[in-house]
Amino acid sequence: MSHDRKRATPAAIMPTARSTPEDMDRHMAHGIPSRPIMPITAAISRFPAHTDCELLPKQGKTGLPESPIEEVLKQFQYWMQLDVANGTASASTLRAYSIDAQQYLAHLQKHGINLTFVTGDVLKEYQGYLLQHFRASTASRKFTSVRRFHEMAFAHGQLPSNPAAHIKSLVARTDRHEQIQCISRLQMQKILVLSDEQYQHTANEKIKALRDNPMLLLTMRHGLREVELVRLNIEDMSLQRDGENSTLRVCGRNDTQRTIPLVLQTQVAIEKWLATHSLMHVEPDEDGTPLFISLHWGDSGHGKGGRRLSTRGLRKTIDEYLEAVGAKTRGISGCALRHSFAMWSLFEGADPRVLQREIGYISLERTTRYRQLVAAMQANPAKYRTFLEVLLPPDAATEMNEKKRSGKSRSYTSED
Length: 416
What we know:
This protein is mostly helical.
């Protein structure tokens, strides 16, 4: 299969009156509606002023007309796909923006506010609401979706004004370098031990470990993103027998592609998984033959017939390993493994520009943040207070104990 995987251009994915059912499926896969959507102002006119009813139909109710908000959200996705992402936005990205916009519209309806009369003060109050209920980074992303919603509705003549134009974006309350969450080298080693199939007992546990081990190595030793892991296909690999020049083709954000060299440890782990993978008769999907698949133990008891692993399934798997080694805290997720790869690589002397290419950053700025974090670790003033690590001479500790002997006094030893 060719590695030149490209998404359709905006012109190619626009629905037409002669679109086939297959075209319609492709439109929806890109978040593009298969029929014209009513103007937002028309949908707004159908909003109830005050209601406690569901904004969207509950799952399982079929045959009912779409709610006004569903139509508005489809229009929003359509704009995002064509006007912002130039037709390259992934389905997950569009879904995230849509969910944020849906929550915002639900908030307005709960408080009886019509979208056409939203003011800057209303948006500032919503910012406060987001900060009360979400982490600063999450609140910032959600409000960015709201800004985009108003921007596009105004640009396309669907709203009379854009009250978000002069509202400042949320600023993270933590230092930029503290936003980079990493785990220790010891915790990374423990994760690899837990994912080693030789320490597993049942057949299912061994198969899962054979799959998980190369996944974890690719993120902890090569810095792949979660989405890049689930997109990997068998056709993307070029494994050499000598293990010297093996490479992997990675499809990153916005369909950018890069080739990374594999170390022997990673190649061996991948080859072990491929030996098991070949027995599962995995069917190719529209993007190729998935390298990492979900495991369904009910089918012959050995995960046969699994489909491409989802991002959610990958995150759940990584979280299980983080929990097991005591590293799962607030802010620590699969991204922390990628950050740990970058930080510890620089700590051990890796070239920042080479790291930038391998990790898939467009600019050197992000890599510089890791360098500053490493520099702060290496220049830690506490490292120079080594005299505090020297134990007291036994005679001195004994003399102190004799002076402090009393009912509530503690005894000092030379090892305290």
